[in-house]
Amino acid sequence: MVLGLLAIAAIPTTIGVAEGISEGRKENDPETEEERMRKFQLECFCGANSQKAKEIDGGHIVLRGEKLYIVPRHSSSTSHPFEGFYIEYPDPERPRPLPLGLVSTISKDPPMLNWMYVDKNTREVKYGNRTQSRAHIVGSWGWDAGEEGGAGGLTLAGGEGAVAVEGDDGWEIRWEDEDGKAGVERRQKLTISLERKMLEPREEDKPFHARASEREDDRQTKRTNTNIELTNTTFQRSKRTTGEPERVDKAVKKGAKENHSAPKLEIRGTTVERPLARK
Q1: Cα–Cα nearest to 70, from 169, 197, 196, 187
Q2: Backbone angles phi, psi at 20, to 5 degrees
Q3: pLDDT one-digit tens code per residue, 120-129
Q4: Are 41 and 53 in contact (CB under 8 A)?
Q5: Contact 138, 115 (CB under 8 A)
Q6: Cα radius of gyration rounded to whole Å, the chain
Q7: pTM here?
């Protein structure tokens, strides 16, 4: 399920993230807010016909040294994976409506969030707190429609512009400007798409056979809970009115040990009749 607002509030986030969540709760309807706050990871898609493209195609996005990098699909990495969601970027000096910001966890212990932004000078995609990010391009982030109802790719200002640039520390991610420039020259650059991979799919997003299987599992669990084999076992207890002993039928699971001092059994879907006490 979506990372809840109460859970978010318990995380020591960077300054401004909690404000963004609060602002979103005031201005957005619940369905829109829930859709934006669905957590996702990012994967690289590169359709170029080259060996370099095959190296990064299918790679996952990680955070390292205040920048975003692509880790090849079959490579191991100790860097923190991108795990993010959308919330409005809180800034009283910006005109309304506020841009839709993008945050990601940057560590698990302690769990913290940072804003994603594009450096206006270098075009590098970076992460940082509000002080570090507010002078740069902080949104509006979004996603495209996706193919065949898929999750869609990451967008900025309504369009995709991500590129992979090969550097000394690996394949870093930059975002091209309106003129197609990414702040680099004479370096390998590949056009990519950052595809969202949802971490908690909605019920309607699950394949039909998966939903049917879950329903069948639920029915099987209910049948197991109600299909209890009973044995005729009796024990003595006193009536509340007269103190006269009476025999009461007790239902016990077959093979279970009896505990006369504290008999406890929950029976669902089964009626146990007790003989009327003699007057």
Answers
A1: 169
A2: -65, -40
A3: 999 999 999 9
A4: no
A5: yes
A6: 29
A7: 0.66
